[in-house]
Amino acid sequence: MWERSKELYDVAKTLMPGGVSSPVRAVKPFPFYTRKARGSRIYDVDGNEYIDYCMAYGPLILGHADERVKEAVKSALENGWVYGTPIELEIEYAKLITSIYPSIDMVRFTNTGSEATMSALRLAKGFTGRDKFVKIEGSFHGAHDSVLVKAGSGATTHGTPNSAGVPEDFVKNTLQSPYNDVEALAEIVEKNRDELAALILEPVMGNSTLIIPEDGYLREVRKITEENDVLLIFDEVITGFRLSLGGAQEYYGVKPDITTLGKIAGGGFPIGIVGGRREIMEHFSPSGAVYQAGTFSGNPVSLTAGYTTAKILSEERPYDELRRKTEELVKAVRDGIEDGKVEGVEVDSIESMFCVYFGERPRDYASALRLDKERFMKFYWKLLENGVFFPPSQYESCFMSTAHSMEDVERTAEVILKCLAEL
Ligand SMILES: Cc1ncc(COP(=O)(O)O)c(C=O)c1O
Ligand SMILES: N[C@H](C=O)CCC(=O)O
Q1: Residue of 25, 55, 141 with the most ligand 1 atoms within 8 Å of its CB, for mutation
Q2: So which cofactors does this thing need (predicted)?
Q3: Are 64 and 42 in contact (CB under 8 A)?
Q4: Which pairing describes strands 49-52 and 41-44: parallel, antiparallel, or unpaired?
Q5: Do 273 and 410 have their domain in common?
Q6: d(CA 275, CA 271)
Q7: Cα-to-centroid distance, 148 and ligand 2 (Å)
């Protein structure tokens, strides 16, 4: 079924570590190689077609190759694609973001979510004059040194949550707290308050499976950080424009001091954005002393795709429809699991993010680690054989897009239940 993909991967392994450009793609024994993608579908070089719920790990809320985004990018390309000068679209996009996210007065455009979180943490340290920060166990904020401790996503999938090559000295200022545990967080923040610049968290965890905040957790997080004069950074690289137009902060009504955006914010092209209160943001160079820069930052192509996507989302507000489709899928699978008496599998969703758990639905990283990831991988391969593509790890989340039809959803529920029954 995957002869050509296998051949390509054998060559790739001789030229790139693990044969890939990002570890999550290195599926054992080989990944499929993509030929093209349109709407809800992704097609491999072996002639197979899949309904896609990986969706490039989140950016494609409008589905693959949305025509409106494509046309906007094509016309932007007519004028060149990188200038090294400011462009008017930066102002337009900044205005749009600040109008959607009331916690954001100013933005700095970067190239990736990793750069955004790295810069946000540097900004928090520069602003407060303190060196330490707290992250949540199992969260993933990209692949930069200070956050590669108990990191989720590919770092956990490949058994390296604490990356080699990161000197102990670099991570001595990274403190960890379990998700959904208010007492543990309060203790660590109170104990370190004079040295703590910030708490960074994914408001909904999307990189250690999908973990949903318990009632009131995010409000307590805000209270604890505020009372202890610690900045709160919401890493909304996944949840921004996804949980709602205004991200998790709008959805839960909690206002962070600094926000990082990415993925959907670039409409499928590389981007990262740091946003926050003016008094904090003005510490970025050149108005302040926190250095942050990039040759490709604010590039016209990513900005065009991101701005076009954000405009479409703000005009069409497809969030009810996205939620309905996702809930339909989850309900059909949940009912099927109950009827078929499938043991040890749960399913859950929040808005257009969902996950099939091989074990009990987790509430933190420790419980996510107890899931049966080998069984998940058997399920993954069965799904592929039946024309459905999930992200290739138990620790990733699945994403619904506006391009998925109700027929896709019904077909997917059938396939999931068939595969579970065959396991
Ligand atoms: C929550 C979160 N933050 C940051 C990142 C890093 O973004 P990027 O892959 O664009 O560097 C990711 C994904 O990789 C993410 O899921
Ligand atoms: N889970 C990661 C981002 O959200 C997956 C992207 C990657 O590491 O390539």
Answers
A1: 141
A2: pyridoxal 5'-phosphate
A3: yes
A4: antiparallel
A5: no
A6: 13
A7: 13
Q: List the alpha helices (DSSP H) in 101-253.
A: 113-128, 154-157, 168-171, 182-192, 217-227, 247-252
Longest dimension (CA), the chain: 62
Q: Which of 266, 284, 316 is the last residue of a domain?
A: 316
Tell me which of 16, 21, 24 to substitute to probe ligand 2's pocket, judged by most ligand atoms within 8 Å of the beta carbon: 24
322 & 415 share domain: yes
The verdict on 268 and 354 lying in the same domain is no
Q: Which helix (H) or strand (E) element contains residue 363?
A: none
Whether residue 213 contacts residue 251, with contact meaning beta carbons closer than 8 Å, is answered with no
Nearest residue by C-alpha to atom 16 in ligand 1? 238
Residues 199-250 pLDDT 10s? 999 999 999 999 999 999 999 999 999 999 999 999 999 999 999 999 999 9
The per-residue pLDDT for 291 is 98
Give per-residue pLDDT as tens, 68-117.
999 999 999 999 999 999 999 999 999 999 999 999 999 999 999 999 99
- Quick: pLDDT tens for 158-169: 999 999 999 988
The first and second tokens of residue 365, run together, are 């990283």
- Quick one: pLDDT band at residue 340, thresholds 50, 70, 90? confident
Q: Is the CB of 137 under 6 A from ligand 2?
A: no
CATH number of the domain bearing residue 206: 3.40.640.10
Other C-beta atoms within 10 Å of 162: how many?
11
49 Cα–ligand 1 center, Å: 27
Same domain? 11 vs 79? no
Same domain, 202 and 173: yes
Query: pLDDT-derived band of residue 170, with 50, 70 and 90 as boundaries?
Result: confident
Can you tell me the ipTM of this complex? 0.99
Q: Please give the single-letter amino acid code of residue 321.
A: E
Q: Which domain holds residue 335?
A: 3-61+318-422
Cβ atoms 383, 421 nearer than 8 A: no
What total of structural domains would you count in the chain?
Answer: 2
Is the domain of 144 the same as that of 237? yes
Residues 101 and 228 in one domain: yes
Residues with Cβ within 8 Å of 250's Cβ and at least 6 positions away in sequence, in order, are 101, 243, 244
pLDDT band at 358 (very low <50, low <70, confident <90, very high): very high
